[in-house]
Write a structure and sequence with these properties.
With 172 residues, this protein is mainly beta. Helix content is 9%, strand content 36%. The protein contains one helix and nine strands. The longest helix has 15 residues. The radius of gyration is 35 Å and the shape is elongated.
């Protein structure tokens, strides 16, 4: 009985033994050259190649709009806006978002702090709400930032910028 027990113990000890690492060969591995850094060059996008595109000129914003619009999901926008030589004369906007609430913005709640390159209105109450207006080709964009106090419920989370066609005053 002692012999089988001794054999088992020897096998267990042998299983725990470590094999010494092989000595490093005297032959060095062939060195590979360091990867070469390739210089990246900017390539024009294929749909822009051959076009003569110029930046939007910086000029005072002029737009007049009295419009209403209803989109496919039922959001109703009502806007009364007049900006003359980047000076906001009239600004009254209401956006009703179904099942979310409404947002209302009036020039009396804001003070104009910038004219160029974008018209910028800041809330007079110090809430951090800003309204930015800029020209994008034939359209004027009116965007709202940090204005949940001007909205009911969660309406501000669903508020998109208002787009106005500069020539006709149509909004969408």
């Amino acid at each position: 009985m002692r012999k089988p027990l001794a054999v088992v113990l020897l096998l267990l000890l042998g299983a725990c033994a470590q094999v010494p690492p092989e000595p490093a060969s005297s032959e060095a591995a062939p060195e590979q050259p360091a990867p070469r850094e390739e210089r990246m060059e900017s390539q024009p996008l294929k749909h822009l190649k051959g076009r003569n595109i110029k930046p939007q000129p910086t000029r005072p914003l002029n737009v007049k709009s009295r419009c209403t619009h209803r989109d496919a999901v039922g959001t109703r926008t009502s806007l009364n806006l007049q900006v003359k030589e980047a000076d906001v004369k009239t600004f009254d906007a209401r956006v009703d978002i179904p099942k979310r609430g409404a947002c209302r913005f009036n020039l009396k709640q804001f003070r104009q702090v910038a004219k160029l390159p974008n018209v910028l209105l800041e809330a007079a109450d110090g809430s951090g709400c800003t309204v930015r207006m800029w020209e994008q080709g034939p359209r004027v964009t009116i965007a709202f930032n940090k204005c949940p106090a001007s909205c009911e419920g969660q309406a501000f989370d669903y508020l998109w910028p208002i787009m106005v066609e500069a020539k006709t005053g149509r909004c969408f």
